[in-house]
């Protein structure tokens, strides 16, 4: 694993994501939904070192990433990552619907595709030109489904990546916007979101649109979406070329449950415990729902970007996730942004430049 403290001057971004009143990590850019973020100049920002809590990960590069995934574990529960590993997927029927916006660099489309029995909505930013364009599939963070509108998450990233020449597919997830409903999603720890992202990749790969390069696909996840991306990497190794996670939730699902569900949503917590048991009562279930348990299966390079003062998803979570991938001999890099919180502000443009370089290198 490589640990990189950032030392660079960057432009400040006017748009900052807000934190939901429930305390759950959010990716709600609704204050400027529907329009790209606008950059403004700011004083130079300088970073120093990673936060001092917990031991810092080694700076020694790891061995080459594993060429083949570890053996498939036995699924003790149909609601588990091993169950998602064994599942057959048929993501298909990617359809471009109405045009939502036209910019100088790309056209923004509403889209739908199939994820098992469900229809999932989203948006697709297609760069102008013939292509084929590499594809970045975006997994957004938590936004209350009651207020969510299609393509609402990761607005800055959608615009930036399309302007850098990526076709950008932003997944709404089931129960969001125009997607079909799944009444068990919350009870089953939102593992269905992972299925929706897997099927988004397959829908891109199966598309007959010549502008989409199904052989060059990367994942970008933020906050809750970072956890979704980790799930994809361990359940479907070889599906994509590389992955980037910003300010990710923990790779140990118990951390996320205790921080946001047990503490703030007692009715949902009660449903989960009735169905699956608490972490104390049924630790095996919770281990099988945690991507950290299965990092040895991942085969794709992973870039982790995290702010040193993130008080929503604590820096120790990123450190422990990176250390787990390192112990498994995976290609992982953890980059710290000194003074940045959960939303990323002044150093967000620098983080996106790094993201683009990383994806382009892995897709070449």
TrEMBL record:
This enzyme's EC code(s): 3.4.-.-
UniProt GO MF annotations: hydrolase activity
Keyword NADP in annotation: no
Region (Disordered): 25-79
Keyword Ion transport: no
PROSITE patterns in UniProt: PROKAR_LIPOPROTEIN (PS51257)
Signal peptide: 1-22
Top-level class of the enzyme under EC nomenclature: hydrolase
Stretches assigned to the Peptidase S9 prolyl oligopeptidase catalytic domain: 157-361
InterPro entries recorded: AB_hydrolase_fold, FrsA_esterase, Peptidase_S9_cat
UniProt feature, compositional bias: Low complexity: 35-78
Keyword annotations: Hydrolase, Signal
Pfam family, one: Peptidase_S9
Family stated for the protein in its record: Belongs to the AB hydrolase superfamily.
Name under which the protein is recorded: Alpha/beta hydrolase family protein
Organism field: Mumia xiangluensis
UniProt lineage: Bacteria, Bacillati, Actinomycetota, Actinomycetes, Propionibacteriales
